[in-house]
Design a protein that fits this description.
Layout (H helix, E strand, L loop, with lengths): L2 E3 L5 E3 L3 E2 L5 H13 L4 E3 L7 H11 L7 E6 L6 H15 L4 E6 L6 H13 L3 E7 L3 H9 L7 E5 L7 H10 L2 E5 L13 H8 L5 H10 L4 E2 L6 H8 L8 H8 L23
Parallel strand pairs: 3-4, 4-5, 5-6, 6-7, 7-8, 8-9, 9-10
Antiparallel strand pairs: 1-2
The chain binds NADP nicotinamide-adenine-dinucleotide phosphate.
């Protein structure tokens, strides 16, 4: 699996498996399927209520823990420093794990600088290997890094062919924070799987529209974590490393950007002005 080296020197697989909206009752089976076909990076969250099932699948796989890259996300409104620390340890207890590879603030929670100090200390104490944010846009990101000792390793934001996030990608590159796409398949919306441009580009390589959509992101150095409960789709979504999109094909896919997100999430990336940064 190709990796991206984060700003702390730790390597993260460029492609992983996400479990948002995977029902807790089937999460263990899905994650075991994902592991069996080669996924080693797993993305869960407190909010998804399936952290424990992800972790039990990892144990049941029999594969050593250190071969995985496991992400979770804190979800707690306006916690104090102490509450944030305790909250992360709650994830570790639920997962029966000694450490996580990456912990994110799921979205700006209020008192984000307090959460961040807790995260920084949890890195020093060995509970977290890397720390990052999710759904942080220029203002919230700037507020956080203003007082931070550690720059976020990752910012996980909605990014896909219909919402390409070019301003945020530029800003994060300048700051040394890797962009991780959530919803890399646009959550199946906008007819992505039969989109004529993606289908035509895919036909030239013997690939599906989904594979072109993922390749388009990976080729820009963006980390992707597609979700599927179907094993054959898990296999398909991983099979994106034996072809490259040409510059013309990248340009064709770039035209699909609508500049809007899918579900009304904060989109202040659109207001990013490099001169004001
Ligand atoms: N940080 C955040 O706020 C945030 C928000 C949303 C998501 N996430 C993370 O990002 C991950 C991925 O995003 P997502 O789950 O929202 O959406 P996604 O991965 O863009 O799309 C998932 C949808 O596509 C379908 N699908 C997957 N592969 C397919 C294929 N090859 N052909 C046809 N259909 C396919 C899935 O259906 P089936 O399952 O039926 O195959 C599902 O309906 C999440 O699981 C989660 O870990 C984070």
């Amino acid at each position: 699996m190709e990796t991206i080296t984060l700003n702390n020197g730790i390597k993260m697989p460029v492609l992983g498996y996400g479990v948002y909206m995977v029902d807790p009752s089937v999460t263990e089976r899905c994650v075991l399927d994902a592991i069996s076909v080669g996924y080693r990076s797993l993305d869960t969250a407190q909010y998804y209520e399936n952290e424990a099932m992800v972790a039990s699948a990892v144990r049941k796989s029999g594969i050593p823990r250190d071969e995985f890259f496991i992400t979770s996300k804190l979800c707690l409104s306006r916690p104090t420093y102490e509450q944030a620390k305790e909250n992360v340890k709650g994830s570790l207890r639920r997962m029966k794990m000694d450490y996580l590879d990456l912990m994110l603030i799921h979205w700006p929670m209020g008192n984000d600088s307090g959460i961040w100090r807790a995260f920084e200390d949890l890195v020093k104490e060995g509970y977290l290997r890397s720390i990052g944010v999710s759904n942080f846009y220029p203002k919230t990101y700037a507020d956080l890094v203003k007082n931070a000792s550690v720059i976020p390793a990752v910012n996980q934001i909605e990014t896909h062919v219909f919402y390409q996030q070019r301003p945020m990608i530029q800003l994060m590159a300048e700051q040394g924070t890797a962009v991780e796409s959530w919803g890399p398949l646009a959550e199946g919306m906008n007819g992505i799987f039969s989109h004529p441009v993606l289908t035509e580009v895919g036909a030239a390589h013997g690939k599906t529209a989904a594979q072109v959509a993922l390749r388009f992101l990976i080729q820009q150095g963006i980390i992707v974590i597609p979700k599927s409960v179907h094993k054959e789709r898990m296999i398909q979504n991983m099979d994106v490393f034996d072809f490259s999109l040409t510059e013309n094909e990248m340009a064709a896919v770039r035209t699909l950007d609508t500049g809007h997100n899918l579900e009304g999430w904060p989109a202040d990336a659109l207001k990013y002005n490099p001169n004001e940064w």
